Amino acid sequence: MRQITIYDIAKEAKVSVATVSRVLNGTAPVKASTRAKIEALIQKYQFQPNAMARSLLSKETGIIGVIVPDLTNPFFPEVFAGAEQEAQESGHTFLLCNTMGSYAKESEYLNIMQEKRVDGIVFIGGRINLKDCEPELVQEVVEHANKIPLVLVNGNLKNTELTRVVTDEYTGTLLAMRHLIELGHTQIGFIGGESHMTTTSIKLRAFRKALRDEGIPVREEWILPDSFSVDSGRQMMQKLLDMKEQPTAVCCVNDFTAIGAIKTAVENGLKVPDDISIVGFDDIPLAHHVIPELTTVSQQANELGRMAIKVLRQMMNKGKTKKLTALEPQLVVRQSTARL
Amino acid sequence: MRQITIYDIAKEAKVSVATVSRVLNGTAPVKASTRAKIEALIQKYQFQPNAMARSLLSKETGIIGVIVPDLTNPFFPEVFAGAEQEAQESGHTFLLCNTMGSYAKESEYLNIMQEKRVDGIVFIGGRINLKDCEPELVQEVVEHANKIPLVLVNGNLKNTELTRVVTDEYTGTLLAMRHLIELGHTQIGFIGGESHMTTTSIKLRAFRKALRDEGIPVREEWILPDSFSVDSGRQMMQKLLDMKEQPTAVCCVNDFTAIGAIKTAVENGLKVPDDISIVGFDDIPLAHHVIPELTTVSQQANELGRMAIKVLRQMMNKGKTKKLTALEPQLVVRQSTARL
DNA sequence: TTGAAAGCGCTAACAC
DNA sequence: GTGTTAGCGCTTTCAA
């Protein structure tokens, strides 16, 4: 069924398309009677102007592209929700692309966004978290950023000047570690994350720093990166528990691994937090519904999303934009940590 | 910075735009030397053809609009992921719209999708779950469906012939209830959901039916709809526990409420499943990471998403489409239920 | 207050 | 093999 156009309306109203366009956009005065006639027709046919034809002229699509690594991790929907709230204001809507960690897909989606002429791009996860990203992958992003406003969320690309919005994960981890240390823990392990990713290495740096500050020796064998999943948390915790000497507290790379770690600890007959303290990172919604409720570091995911859009909007309006916006993470003490 | 066009390429290559278009689309043979020249230019400028101009002709945008009520409930990202996987094949990408339960937003997004001429619409949640949806809201959806292929996921709109993909929630609940009854439970409560929504009433119908089939009287005071959140599960469970007589098992409207119910039960000193059995519905990823692991009914969220796209694709290709596709839910027995 | 016409970037006849 | 040209549906001068 053919969609009706401004011509159909114009014809039936016996006016020119220009006039119809005028009542559609309120861009110039139209005699009340003609306006009424046209509006009636619009109503009658439920006419909606073709946004593409419009965008072709205006060079604006009203679409923001979002690249996320895995929507199944609740952290990302939170960020997205924040972005959506903020975008209400400017009437933007979202092309959401899930890469499932594939760099090839990131490229593919980047190209699609470029073709569709999205007004801006939010890039989270994937290659921008690599400690050592291949130059071509970096270059690709830079080239897109030259054409379309683009903001990196919680990531970075070396030797580039890309605009970024991040939570200060270093400080966040410090917060978590100091909390543990204040509770009397000195035997602390680290679980999860992938060592080739910056999130992980930043957190590990803070982990070591916190220990060193207190003159506590770092036990390398208790540092067990692996991945970001619940299962990873379970496996690494099991590894820890199979050792002769075990830590009394564990700092996890995110809430998923923390939930896994708790589960395995409990299965091994330990009580959390009495026998072992566990902290997560992110503060996903379920963190305070889990048993025991998770002590964690809030990334303010929602705020992160909002901020990304705010920054993007500045860029779209050609306003000057800070290259780096950092949000302060917050320690959220709940039930999974206790005094030694 | 002006985006470059097919004209720029044509000019510099000293050929017509038609030729450039031909190499872009491989739609007709082009002499190897000219082709090479053009391709070099495309490479040089990283030229990407404007998809809108293209769509204006082709009447296809390659975009599928998805309306979801709340991306923060992990069930929906799962559905979305399934849809995305399936859409790979046809190269579709997604305009994702989160309504946060607002019918006004649904209308708004529906209009935006219409304006943007998306190739198809997937509608989940919101008004399509209402037992009694206002005629205007129904009509609106029907009108959009007349112009754009549209599929309803896990919902329905009375007196319409809209295409639907659903999981059989009635059978699913029957499965859960029979499981409880086989374990010897006869004192069973129901928690969560909103009574004006079909999901809830379908499940309640099955709940009653299962009891009746076994000649077990229904205790109306143990039926506590409220909402779909974890907190709702907590509150309703507390209500149940505050009663003089308490059920030995609880059937929850979804996994969120089940997780809440477990939490409150545990806080009240009960052991799950020893003192009280609890079943959820949905089988969100966290269901088997929670302690105790949740016995629940799998909706096959991923498959649901895939199926929605498959059906949508049929509609887009004007193939004949079944009006109703039902997926069979599956009982997943884990640790939150036990013999009485 | 209204209309004619050019043009946004691309594709697809139709010629040559 | 390649170029010319007419749209796709809309906005926006410029005239009237």
Structural notes for this entry:
The structure is a homodimer of 340-residue chains. Chain A has 340 residues and is an alpha/beta fold. The first copy, chain A, has helices at residues 6-13, 17-25, 32-45, 51-58, 75-88, 103-115, 135-147, 169-182, 198-213, 230-241, 255-267, 301-316; strands at residues 63-68, 93-98, 120-124, 150-153, 163-167, 188-191, 223-224, 249-252, 277-279, 296-298, 324-327, 330-332. The first copy, chain A, has three domains: 6-58, lambda repressor-like DNA-binding domains (434 Repressor (Amino-terminal Domain)); 63-168 and 301-328, Response regulator (Rossmann fold, 3-Layer(aba) Sandwich); 169-299, Response regulator (Rossmann fold, 3-Layer(aba) Sandwich), CATH 3.40.50. Helices cover 44% and strands 14% of the residues of chain A. In chain A, helix 9 (198-213) links the parallel strand 6 (188-191) and strand 7 (223-224). In chain A, helix 1 (6-13) crosses helix 2, helix 1 packs across helix 3 (32-45) and helix 5 packs across helix 12 (301-316). The longest helix of chain A has 16 residues, at 198-213. Strand 2 (93-98) of chain A pairs antiparallel with strand 2 of chain B, so a sheet runs across the interface. Chain A binds a DNA duplex (16 and 16 nucleotides) through helix 2 and helix 4.
Any key phrases for this structure?
elongated, four-stranded parallel beta sheet, LacI family DNA-binding transcriptional regulator (chains A, B), 3 domains, Rossmann fold, 340 residues, 434 Repressor (Amino-terminal Domain), DNA-binding, transcription regulation (chains A, B), homodimer, 14% strand, alpha/beta, 12 helices
